[in-house]
Amino acid sequence: MLISADALMHMYRYRQCSPWAKEAGGQLFGTISAEQILVTAATGPYARDERSRYRYRSDPAAAQHAILAQAESGLLYLGEWHTHAEDHPDASGLDGEAMHQLLAKSQLNSNALLMLIVGRMLTVDSLGLWSVTAERVDQWHLEYIIT
Length: 147
Ligand SMILES: [Zn+2]
What we know:
The chain is an alpha+beta fold and 147 residues long. It has a single domain, classed as Cytidine Deaminase, domain 2 (3-Layer(aba) Sandwich), CATH 3.40.140. It is 23% helix and 31% strand. It has three helices and nine strands. The protein has helices at 5-12, 60-72, 93-105; strands spanning 2-3, 25-32, 37-42, 50-52, 55-57, 76-83, 113-118, 127-132, 137-140. The strands form two sheets. The protein has a seven-stranded mixed beta sheet with strand order 1-3-2-6-7-8-9. Strands 4-5 form a two-stranded antiparallel sheet. Strand 7 and strand 8 form a beta hairpin. The protein binds zinc ion. The site of zinc ion has 5 residues, from loops. Keywords: Hydrolase, Metal-binding, Metalloprotease, Protease, Zinc.
């Protein structure tokens, strides 16, 4: 799996580096081929999201709008991202629950959604990546960041 520099830079703008910064997040978009999942764009946060220091939920209407807009440029909805005020982010029970709810509600081409959590640091171990299906949650390890 590859995450484009554009998508990463978008998410990095919302890292929770100050003690009062709230969680931010949104949706991930890209392409899937036999060889590679490519995340090329990240959207959000949106004006009507639920945001606090330790919680983020996208405004469902804004998320749906983003999904339709990205589909027009040929990009698939791949999952969700949000920030954590941690250096080595771990998915909370609520995060897993939220992903399962999204899976149940969404009409997807695939049966899995990605969940990316962006920690405070610029290192690769400050990015947490999970894939979520109805049956299971798997953590993935990103190998490196090209700068
Ligand atoms: Zn979280």
